[in-house]
Amino acid sequence: MSGIPSQGVASGMREAARALLAVLEPEQVRELRAGPDRLDTPELREWTYLPGPRPGLSTEGLDGRQREVVDALLTTAHSAAGAELVRGAIEVERHRRAWAGHPGPDRYWVRLLGDPGGDEPWGWRLNGHHLAVHVLVTAAGVRVTPHFVGAEPARTGNGPRPGLRPLGPEEDLARELITSLGGTARASALFAATPPDDILTRADPFADPGLLPEGLRYDRLAPGQQRLLERLVGRYLDRAPEAYARECWSDAVRRGLGSLSFAWAGGLAPGDRHYYCVRAPDFLIEYDNTQDDGNHAHSVWRHVRHDWGTDLLRGHYTEQHF
């Protein structure tokens, strides 16, 4: 992959965050900076993808220019493909609210942590129903996990864009992999006939791959199946800015792809309720489409060391003591 270096990503985020501060009223800035400002406080690991208000500035009351600036900030945390995915999830949420009789402006909460104009670590997050993006920036790099995207419905049935499936590739690649398996390989990958009702890690503050079933290891797959698993993992890593996605993939290759594993639960046919996960030493991926008779999808990418920028913050605060 080619793309903007991490320093360029951080610079773009800084400019977008400063642009947001410039278009907000003083009271809105106070809401944007809600809560503790120290980036390693445990309270900042509290998150949810369920409906309901969050700390921060609600996008519901923003004017057109302010919403454009928030959208620009959100775009900086993603590759082109990742930005398209997030926009699709937001569009599906609009569809859901209109169908439920609650149309109106988007309802997400933006929160700024630290000073994007200074030299110290800073971050921001955008949270709401079925969307949770968490960003940490230091001089050493950028982190963007936990990263959660959901879609209710998983496939829209009417409206201006019927058949919209933001998470369609995430579902289709995994189904292609599980249905390509046979015999003992499929038996190892299938851990339950009935899928769990939600992702197993839920909104845990710390990612724990041990919560997930072991499944079928990469080194037991045929070459074509290995490429499918690589493409599936890539679909999640490629949500991030390209430089960071490359870093995560390079780390996985260096640790050995043989440590990757894939597990599935539920039916195999399109429309069946199902769940899958991918485990690696440093990260985990989960996807479920089980609620609303298999038309309500959740997906999450977590990183054991990088969630909340823990590794970067540890390095920064350690250096301050020397």
From TrEMBL:
It holds the Pfam family DUF3500. InterPro entries: DUF3500. PANTHER family: DUF3500 DOMAIN-CONTAINING PROTEIN. This is DUF3500 domain-containing protein. The lineage of its organism: Bacteria, Bacillati, Actinomycetota, Actinomycetes, Kitasatosporales.
